[in-house]
Amino acid sequence: MNVLNFGSLNVDYVYGVSHIAKPGETIKALSRNIFAGGKGLNQSVSMSRAGVDVFHAGCVGNESTLLLRTLQEENIDTEFVLALNADSGHTIIQVEDGGQNCIIVNGGANQKIPKSHVDIVIRRFAKNDLLVLQNEISNLAYIMEKAYTTGMQIIFNPSPYIDDIKKLPLYTVSYFVVNEDEGLKLFDAEVIEDIIPNASQQYPGCRVLLTMGENGAMYYENGAIIRQPAYTVKSVDSVAAGDTFLGYFVHGLTRDLPIDKTLDNAAIAAAITVTRHGAAMSIPRMEELKLAIERMQIAG
Fold first, then answer.
1. 3-299 adopts what CATH topology?
2. Where are the domains of the chain?
3. Engineering a disulfide at 196: which of 25, 141, 166, 220 sits with its beta carbon 3.0 to 4.6 angstroms away?
């Protein structure tokens, strides 16, 4: 089973602040750091650090050095990353003392993916290969339809959420990976408890991974729901927690691990991530996860 992530590549400008700036307010930054990021890149790093052999597809622009170097250093295949004469995607992120964040995204090259590149990429994959998608790139509908026709299993994380997502061919999705806000909006739910029932009714046969931060996660498949509690840690930066959870979830799928073990691994990895600053670089490697599990077993 091959894993392809067709996703965004951003240069992240991260500002540490005492609190998230309010409308009309000017505040002083306590720090600034520059990282390789984007939900696509973060999820590729997470999958790779978990032990998945992942191909990344997407577009970079003139600020490509940091992005390509990061992918290559993380052993992520960059054969399908196309360089364009444009600005690379970038973000401005505020992270407050408690770890909460606020993000502004400029799509850049991520929003200029040509259909011809999609054709070249999808042609190289086969039935039952996994395709991971987010909502930070252009031509998503075209990518979905091409992958569905090929027989790939699509894992879709509708982030950042916009109402136009509902216009996508969501019937092609095998796995929806959503947080509470995304789930409420995507599946027209009024309360959290309605997310999974609504999803299963609207898209029969789909599987749903619902992440709920400190309240853990729920996974739905074939009428059954499995609940996963979160691990309590001191959070300093929650930027890549969801991306980490998804990456370790995909690892479990590629290894045919029991779903309860897959979810527990993902929860532990996400807990490690939020204790560190930064996006992709805060994601733990499998060796760190195993060490954390050993320590928990000893402590227990």
1. UDP-N-acetylmuramoyl-L-alanine:D-glutamate ligase (3.40.1190)
2. 3-299
3. 220
Residue 155's nearest CA partner among 71, 23, 254, 26 is 254
Encoded tokens for 163: 């109402």
Per-residue pLDDT of the chain (300 residues; tens, 9 = 90+): 999 999 999 998 889 999 999 999 999 999 998 888 889 999 999 999 999 999 999 999 988 999 999 999 999 999 999 999 999 999 898 988 876 788 888 999 999 999 999 999 999 999 999 999 999 999 999 999 999 999 999 999 999 999 999 999 999 999 999 999 999 999 999 999 999 999 999 999 999 999 998 999 999 999 999 999 999 888 887 778 999 999 999 999 999 999 999 999 999 999 999 988 777 788 999 999 999 999 887 654
Q: What does the alpha-carbon distance between residue 211 and residue 181 come to, in Å, rounded to a whole number?
A: 10
